[in-house]
């Protein structure tokens, strides 16, 4: 068992080559507090180093929303996992998962329609708009939100 100070983030990164694919996974604890979103955005920048700017910005925004929701609606611990898969033929697949210790009330699977003037309530709407696929599982013992972003190889890199 890994011993650590409670409340101190722990990051684990691993890189693998599986067939013709490079895979990197970053797993880190997020602080249970207002800094959860900031820490999550910083972790995504590390995990997606060298990725296209539009993918990185989408991933940062999604991760920020998921971490904020986990803090606002869940309980500790908050954990972020970023899986990056890059086939040698080009392109990139990113899977982002945020889990928390659960919530006492159930949340709807579909993102709620938000009012234009509302200051909150757009998190899952943003995730649904930007992600290629996503899911939400809630319960009293844990909540897990997962999404996938994919980018196909650009024509100039696919022919090399």
TrEMBL record:
Domain Histidine kinase/HSP90-like ATPase: from-to ranges: 35-147
Keyword annotations: Kinase, Serine/threonine-protein kinase, Transferase
Keyword Kinase on entry: yes
Gene3D superfamilies, per the entry: Histidine kinase-like ATPase, C-terminal domain
Pfam families in the cross-refs: HATPase_c_2
Record-annotated membrane-spanning stretches: none
Coiled-coil region: none
Alphabetized PANTHER family for the sequence: ANTI-SIGMA-F FACTOR RSBW, ANTI-SIGMA-F FACTOR RSBW-RELATED
Protein name as annotated: Histidine kinase/HSP90-like ATPase domain-containing protein
């Amino acid at each position: 068992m890994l011993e650590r100070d409670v409340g101190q983030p722990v990051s684990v990164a691993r890189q693998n080559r599986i067939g013709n694919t490079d895979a990197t996974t970053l797993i880190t604890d997020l602080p249970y507090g207002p800094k959860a979103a900031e820490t999550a955005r910083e972790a995504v920048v590390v995990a997606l180093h060298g990725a296209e700017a539009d993918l990185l910005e989408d991933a940062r925004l999604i991760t920020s929303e998921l971490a904020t929701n986990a803090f606002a609606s869940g309980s500790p611990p908050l954990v972020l996992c970023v899986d990056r898969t890059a086939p040698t033929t080009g392109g990139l697949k990113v899977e982002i998962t945020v889990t928390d210790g659960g919530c006492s009330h159930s949340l709807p699977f579909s993102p709620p329609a938000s009012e234009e003037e509302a200051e909150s309530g757009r998190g899952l709407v943003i995730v649904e708009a930007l992600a290629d696929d996503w899911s939400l599982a809630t319960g009293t013992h844990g909540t897990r939100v997962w999404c996938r972003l994919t980018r196909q190889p650009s024509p100039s890199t696919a022919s090399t």
